[in-house]
Amino acid sequence: MFDPTDRTNGIDLEVTERLRRTLALVLAGGRGSRLMDLTDWHAKPAIPFAGKFRIIDFTLSNCINSGIRRIGVLTQYKAHSLLQHIQRGWGFLRGEFNEFIELLPAQQRTVGENWYKGTADAVFQNLDIFRAHKPEHVLVLAGDHVYKMNYGKMLAQHLASHADVSVACIEVPLEMAKGFGVMAVDDDDRIIRFNEKPANPQPMPGRPDLALASMGIYIFNAQLLFDQLVKDSTTEGTSHDFGKDLIPALVKSHKVVAHHFQHSCVMHEGAREHYWRDVGTIDAYWEANIDLTTVTPSLNVYDENWPIWTDQAQSPPAKFVFDSDHRRGMAVDSLVAGGCIISGATVRRAMLFSNVRVNSYCVVEDSVILPGVDIGRHARLRKCIVDQGCVVPPGLVVGEDAALDAARFHRTEKGITLVTQAKLNQLK
């Protein structure tokens, strides 16, 4: 079994060089339909998160901070804002040093001229490009999860265990495991069974409440991956998916090893959990953003040793104006991005993205306000998400009457209301 504290095998001396010869592929083509109207015009990885970032920034930052500087981003669904963000915010890599982020939208490059038919097919359709880079290892990543992870530690285990494939895994409650690839491992962490999104997930031995789930993070020996993708492309009945097809087949024929997330999770001092979030539902997205407003959130975005990089907008400082008892511009237990103006309004436990205007006598509580929103006077917003660019009419009340909220907007079972401009237009 891999010991992340072991320094006797000399693996660490070569990991840095191996990382330089590793190619990371970020799968960023998904719509994220469970986010409802938030993904009507943007792929899920492009959705804003944590005040100033995009979801994909966390995966890309993990690559840079881990020492991986050869990255391909595969896109498909409504990718314009995602491509624009990466071009503007991630252009600092230097091609003369063999560093790059290549943008790989679906181009119908193969015989049959199909769009990407699955995660494995997305990689297969660009196989000639990836072969030309001559990587030793290929790191396959999802672009729609929020976490901080040192991929170098995962590669160190991959090398030490002489694995053909490594799969990052995390323990999840059994009732949630139906949405994951669930695996069983032996005493050496070799995967002996892998089932993608099983109807009846198998619990971990001795832990009937937990299952060992795939994070959708894989390290392949490059030639093995290329060979398997070619084989999969001509296999009858395949869905051309890593979790459904490639990984289960390789478990039977090759050495596939589990890498436990706790061995490579980047944590701040005092952290109590190995932070990883799939923010793919309205409730999960709201909860993850609001958690950042607490005194000591589970995710540390202030860590200078593991910074999160992004497209840095040239915005003026946030501004708070008026200071009388009945009209005070203030924000408490909140994150307020640049360009915001809180004009005689009260903001509590809220996440305000860039260029939000909260006008006088408003109350905004327990809410996520996306970029460019203008909230009219006397509005009261509670437990809601307001989509980008919304103009909230004066006096609008959200979060105080569940039946009224459900009639006018999308309201989740947990009581989070999604406010969009299309729904606001219907109020007129």
Automatic annotation (TrEMBL):
Q: Name one Pfam family in it.
A: Hexapep_GlmU
Q: Which CDD domains match?
A: ADP_Glucose_PP, LbH_G1P_AT_C
* HAMAP family hit by this protein: GlgC (MF_00624)
- Positions of alpha-D-glucose 1-phosphate binding: Y116, G181, E196, K197, S214
Reactions performed catalytically: alpha-D-glucose 1-phosphate + ATP + H(+) = ADP-alpha-D-glucose + diphosphate
Q: Name the InterPro entries on file.
A: ADP-Glc_PPase, ADP_Glu_pyroP_CS, GlgC_bac, GlmU/GlgC-like_hexapep, NTP_transferase_dom, Nucleotide-diphossugar_trans, Trimer_LpxA-like_sf
What's its top-level EC category? Answer: transferase
The segment(s) forming the Glucose-1-phosphate adenylyltransferase/Bifunctional protein GlmU-like C-terminal hexapeptide domain are 316-419
What NCBIfam families does the annotation carry?
glgC, PRK00725.1, PRK00844.1
The subunit structure is:
Homotetramer.
GO annotation terms (biological process): glycogen biosynthetic process
Recorded family membership: Belongs to the bacterial/plant glucose-1-phosphate adenylyltransferase family.
Ranges where the Nucleotidyl transferase domain occurs? 24-293
Q: Which pathway does the record list?
A: Glycan biosynthesis; glycogen biosynthesis
PROSITE patterns attached to this UniProt entry: ADP_GLC_PYROPHOSPH_2 (PS00809), ADP_GLC_PYROPHOSPH_3 (PS00810)
| Known function | Involved in the biosynthesis of ADP-glucose, a building block required for the elongation reactions to produce glycogen. Catalyzes the reaction between ATP and alpha-D-glucose 1-phosphate (G1P) to produce pyrophosphate and ADP-Glc.
Recorded GO molecular functions are: ATP binding; glucose-1-phosphate adenylyltransferase activity
Q: Where is this site: Could play a key role in the communication between the regulatory and the substrate sites?
A: Q76, W115
Q: What is its EC number?
A: 2.7.7.27
User: Which keywords does this chain's UniProt record carry?
Assistant: ATP-binding, Carbohydrate metabolism, Glycogen biosynthesis, Glycogen metabolism, Nucleotide-binding, Nucleotidyltransferase, Transferase
Please identify the protein, giving its name as recorded. Glucose-1-phosphate adenylyltransferase
